[in-house]
Amino acid sequence: MDRNDLFSQRTVSAEEAVRAIRNGDRVVFSQGAGIPQVVPEALAKHSEEYADIEIFHMLRPGPIDYVAEGMEPHFRHCAAFVSGGAREAVAANRADYMPCFFFEVPHFFRSGLLRVDVAVIQVSPPDADGFCSFGPACDYVQAACDAARVVIAEVNDCMPRIGGDNSIHVSQLDYVVPCSRALPEAPPAVTGRVEEVIGRFCAQLIEDGATLQLGIGAIPDAVLHCLTEKNDLGLHTEMFADGVIDLIERGVINGRRKTLHRGLHVATFLLGSRRLYEFAATCPAVALYPVDYVNDPCVIMKNERMVSINSCLEVDLMGQVNSETIGLRQFSGTGGQVDYVRGASLSRGGKSIMAMPSTAVHGTVSRIVPFLSHGAAVTTSRNDVDYVVTEYGIAHLKAKTLRERARSLIAIAHPSFREGLMEEFERRFGT
Ligand code: COA
């Protein structure tokens, strides 16, 4: 059967497609800018007809209706990364968080550790050979489709085609739901003087020819602003946002000295503005690959001079890093942070940077703390941590004793918290 026949034979409305979902199913949604739109709306509309559906995904920008109060008998969201729209529901026990390294998620699906009953994805219209692009969200989509009993694909004519190993053939789609919806966008991070200073410190640690991973939040964007004078940088990163466009257009990021995928800007998903999605669709060097490849530390390490730049919420005096919880509340997730910290540490000439403002909550809370908050998770362990940067400087913790770590972390804490931290230092280590 040719691709046009296949396509039209499998085309249904969203309301028809959701009938393939059975009570008790685990439904995996694609994530980020690739999050499905019309099928979840049809599910929510018919919520009364469903019981015990688990909806699994990573990041979902914007509000999430299936975690609202009253949805509990019908849907339960399982988050492998808690989005803003799910935080309150996770805290109130109406949704769950599943700790994991992002690169493992496709293995969970393929091995059956996490059964996938239905995959609901969003793709571009097919090309002449019948291949639909995953657009800006490649990550775990192919693995979810391979493992699923049923694949429901929203075929969105606004979805750009982006390069890499980033497409699926129409023959793998059981239901095709045509739609025309703008992709979700993420507003650019707000950065101020503190982030600018942090960006400058981070830039000191980045040599010409380095390959960068940029994490999520305000800091990575601020770092990018400080890299305009560098040369021959490369990208091998879980995600990137609008901040890289300017550096690629100026030729600062050109991938020329990369030791893996030379010349290509490699990522597993993109999240930013419409400009970013259009840029990625027209830049032949942008290449998206599945997350079990891009985020695998054994792949990351093949990039020499790999530098990972991530942010965190608190660091204790031993160098244990919490990037995802505020006390007992799950704020975000591990994502790919540890994948890159480890990949960078294994890379020849590599380093990992954990950068954060020295305080939070309008200067009332130090992010450098004697002990992590009660209930906090350790995202990056004290054995993995390398550089920690605040607006007061750089602490290099690798191959340093507990005493040396504590001293150098106190030196980059906010001055108004240093005395309290020194008291704890003296209790532990004497004077
Ligand atoms: N105690 C209490 N509250 C704190 C806090 C602390 N120690 N540290 C931060 N907060 C609050 C902030 O005040 C802010 O509150 P607001 O939203 O009311 O202003 C909120 O927590 C978020 O902090 P902020 O530092 O602004 O977050 P960010 O948007 O820059 O993101 C992380 C930082 C760490 C949350 C984000 O990078 C993350 O989720 N990382 C884990 C995953 C990861 O690194 N992935 C990388 C691969 S892409």
Share of helical residues: 25-40%
Identify the bound ligands.
coenzyme A
- From the alpha carbons, calculate the radius of gyration and give it in angstroms: 22 Å
User: How far is the N terminus from the C terminus?
Assistant: 79 Å
Net shape: globular
Give me the secondary-structure category: alpha/beta
Strand share of the residues?
Answer: 15-25%
For the biggest β-sheet, the strand order reads 15-13-11-10-16-21-25-26
Q: How many H/I helices?
A: 15
- Average pLDDT works out at 97
Please describe the biggest sheet, giving its number of strands, its sense, and whether it closes into a barrel: 8 strands, mixed
Q: Which residues form runs of ≥5 with pLDDT under 50?
A: none
Number of strands: 26
In short:
The chain has 15 helices and 26 strands. With 431 residues, the protein is α/β, with parallel strands linked by helices.
How would you describe this protein?
The chain is α/β, with parallel strands linked by helices and 431 residues long. The strands form 7 sheets. It has an 8-stranded mixed sheet with strand order 15-13-11-10-16-21-25-26, with helices on both faces. It is globular, with a radius of gyration of 22 Å. Coenzyme A binds next to helix 8 and strand 16.
Task: Reconstruct the topology from this structure.
Elements: H1 3-10, H2 14-17, E1 26-29, H3 38-45, E2 53-57, E3 75-79, H4 84-91, E4 95-97, H5 105-111, E5 118-123, E6 131-133, H6 141-147, E7 150-156, E8 167-169, E9 175-179, H7 193-204, E10 211-214, H8 218-225, E11 234-236, E12 239-240, H9 243-249, E13 265-267, E14 269-270, H10 274-282, E15 286-288, H11 291-294, H12 297-300, E16 306-311, E17 314-316, E18 321-322, E19 325-326, E20 329-330, H13 337-346, E21 351-355, E22 359-360, E23 365-366, E24 368-369, E25 387-390, E26 393-396, H14 402-411, H15 415-429
Parallel strand pairs: 1-2, 1-5, 2-3, 3-4, 5-7, 7-9, 10-11, 10-16, 11-13, 12-14, 13-15, 16-21, 17-24, 21-25
Antiparallel strand pairs: 6-8, 17-18, 19-20, 22-23, 25-26
Helix pairs in contact: 5-6, 7-8, 14-15
The chain binds coenzyme A (COA).
